[in-house]
Predict the 3D structure of the following.
Amino acid sequence: MPNSTYDLLIKNANIWTSTPEDPYKIKNFKGDVGVHQGKIAAIEPSINADADEILDLKGLELCPGFIDTQVHFREPGLEHKEDLHTGTLGAISGGITGVFEMPNTSPSTVTEKDFFHKVSRVKDRAHCDVAFYIGACAENALDLEELERLPGCSGVKMFMGSSTGTLLVDEQTVLETVVKSGRRRFAVHCEDETRLNERKALLDNPNVSVHDHPKWRDELTALNATQRIIELCEKYNRSVHILHVTTAQEMEFLKTKKNICSVECTPQHLTLFAPDCYDKLGTLAQMNPPIRTRPHQEGLWAGVHNGTVDIIGSDHAPHTLAEKRDNQYPKTPSGMTGVQTILPLMLDHVSNGKLSFEHLMRLMIINPVQLFKVKSRGYITVGAEATFTAIDLKKTRTIRNDWIKSRSGWTPFDGIETTGWPTHAIVRGQLAMSDQEPVGPAQGQMLEFEV
Ligand code: DOR
């Protein structure tokens, strides 16, 4: 390629990256990046060459694209809440360039046919790159080894406790089959179904309210399931990703199991706490596993600080305001939007000194890529995909419902001012977001994995 012309030339950026050879050694340097045909063609202190488009990022941080490894985009079947188009519009507006989408759609994503049906809906509709999980169930447990290797599959997702949708694996023999069939890291929602059912009588109280949600789905409900799956994974030497950990006890336990597991926390569990969140937000704060008290939140932060937590995922799980507000708890659905606010919220924690910017990059770029083996993402190196998120660490803005692209149209963080905002998203060399608004056509593609 003649080095005089780039499709895109990024100037004056403050670049943050590591390399695939040494992924945890993040370097920070000022420079220009030349992009040709969707790939990074040059990284130099200064590039003076022709380009179709020049983007001056002076004063901004340029990172590899941020990834959200847990979103529910509801398509097919629940498109009145969200779909791949609106979900990815939210993602890109919040600086997320790749998402792993969950299988509790309608129908659940449990067969090759279901999976490819979802894949067929990505082209010209998704504004960021996408991967899909395959759901584990009794009927497909023996096929998971093949299903987890489908192109674009981020791995297997298993629900041990009932949540939104019908996916559930609770029976010991099925659990054991799921753990044994397949080799990739698999993601688990840990709540103990037996205990959930035993405690359901709590909800019969005529004065029941959303404040009872964390009492019904209590600490032991989470801990029992987490211990149960870790025990099985140790028995069969299978790597497991424990989703949305919510209790200090689980975090202490998982700290001793890092040889077998990776751990996710959500921004909402790190930011909101009970009873305050239920007082202020009512059922908008209802999710599974629940938001708990301050001591649990402190336990989660301890897990972030001591390295137990590997990944921050949003668990973006939209339901309409009508579904949340026109029903009475416990008839209200669990879940809240998050893909658009995950990065601003976590950058606000960076701004408040809760974690460093490099640490956030590990949690939302490098670990997702390393742990799930995403191909050609996560590094600003010559030859890599030109997918980036640019950030203004000083920008302050108030999160508002009218900015939320989700079809559900709301966020529990409406009215909250945060500092540190993604300013640009670039997907394979194309500007996809500027000033927190989507730009250009939907050009998302399926992510690829080393399997
Ligand atoms: O609160 C939740 N909502 N937790 C889940 O695990 C599922 C999610 C949803 O899909 O609504």
